Amino acid sequence: MAITPALPASPSPYFEIIALPKKGLGAIATTTIPANTLLFSEPPLLWITHSPELEEAEQAEHVNTAFAALSGALQTLFLSLAGGVEAGVEGAWKCNNFMLTSDGRENAVFAAASRINHSCNGGENAYWRWEGGKGRIEFWSGRRVEEGEEITHCYRPDWRMGTRNRRLALLEEYGFVCGCVVCEEQDD
Ligand SMILES: C[S@@+](CC[C@H](N)C(=O)[O-])C[C@H]1O[C@@H](n2cnc3c(N)ncnc32)[C@H](O)[C@@H]1O
């Protein structure tokens, strides 16, 4: 008998997490959300502080050490994130880590924030910020979001290039073919 994995519970009264065509899981608004609404906030699941010059292999060591310190339930949760099923700790880290500070010294993975898909510049309707004093990431709506719309944020807001090059860059850096509203509508 095929076992359907349980969908993660929504951390927010504003959206549900469901399976989406070609994107895995994603967050869909269950109500109209006004601009500048706090959608959710959460502490990191796995967080590392490191020198920004750290080589990838050394960073992986930090990640593995932090992973080993998690409880069994949190390890299972971490490995259930995108990339984790196929490529273990390294895959989940690569697919889901946020650079928290502009000096590149702090990176973390979050259970709920990991489920928010990417939209290229202009298509996103949410943004995040790291509240270091509270030790939490916050997700805010950047504009009014209609019921049924997908909640997205832009993984690389600094990329300003044509759709074709942006899609290639996303494929190279993040390993997916972008199916966001901007890429689907533009064809340059
Ligand atoms: C941080 S996770 C986002 C949540 C993920 N969809 C899940 O099922 O947990 C990033 C992964 O989601 C998918 N993804 C995110 N944004 C996407 C987009 N715009 N188009 C296609 N796939 C996307 C890719 O597989 C990517 O590696």
UniProtKB/TrEMBL annotation:
UniProt xrefs under PROSITE patterns: SET
Highest rank taxon of the organism: Eukaryota
Gene3D superfamilies linked to this entry: SET domain
Residue ranges of domain SET in the record: 13-156
InterPro entries attached to this UniProt entry: SET_dom, SET_dom_sf, SET_domain_protein
Cross-referenced CDD domains: SET_SMYD (cd20071)
Entry protein name: SET domain-containing protein
